[in-house]
Amino acid sequence: MMTPTVCSRSPKALLSFTTNTATSILPCSNKKSTHIDRLPPLQEFIDNVVQKSQLPPCVCLVSLIYLQRLKTKLPPHARGDGDTPYRLFLAAILTASKFLSETGTALTCQSITEVTNFVYSPKDINHMERSFLGLIKYDLYVDVQGIRDYLALHGNLLEMDLIEAAMEP
C-alpha cells in the first residue's frame, strides 16, 4: 500500500505562492475595514499563522486547492473588502485542516482566534468558514490525484513534491 506525503522544499516559496493566491482571487477595495488597521501585511500574517499553528504542508496545499475552487465559482462581479484575502486564507486553512483531520487535531475557530492575536473573534472565524463553504458549494473532496494535478500545474512555483512511500503491511 502506498502512503502519499506532501513535502515542501521551500517554506518561502509556499508563503509567497499562498500570498499571491489569496490576493488574486477577487478585486478588493482599499476601503478600511474594522480589522484592517490591526492586521500586518498579508505575507507576514500568513507566515505568522502557519508558524504558530504549525500547519503541515498538506493542509496548506489543500487550502490552495480550495482557494482555486473558490476563484472558479465566484461571479465575475464579486468584490471584497481590504481584509478579504486574510479572511479567505483563514477560512481555507480551517476547512482544509478539518477535512484532513482524522484524530481531532484540526484547527478550531478558537485556535485561529488565538494565532491571529484576537483580531478576529471565534464568531467571525465561524462566519468566515460558513460563508467559504457556501461559496465553494461544499466541494471539499480532494484525493491524491487532485493533489498530483495541482502539483503538476504549480509544483515548481510552490517547490512542493508528493512522495509516495510503500507502507509496511
UniProtKB/TrEMBL annotation:
One of its GO terms (molecular function) is cyclin-dependent protein serine/threonine kinase regulator activity. It comes from the Eukaryota. InterPro entries: Cyclin-like_sf, Cyclin_N, Cyclin_PHO80-like. Gene3D superfamilies: Cyclin-like (1.10.472.10). It holds the Pfam family Cyclin_N. GO terms for cellular component: cyclin-dependent protein kinase holoenzyme complex; nucleus. Residues 37-140 form the Cyclin N-terminal domain. CDD domains: CYCLIN_ScPCL1-like. Coiled coil: none annotated. PANTHER family: PHO85 CYCLIN CLG1, PTHR15615. This is Cyclin domain-containing protein. The lineage of its organism: Eukaryota, Fungi, Fungi incertae sedis, Mucoromycota, Mucoromycotina.
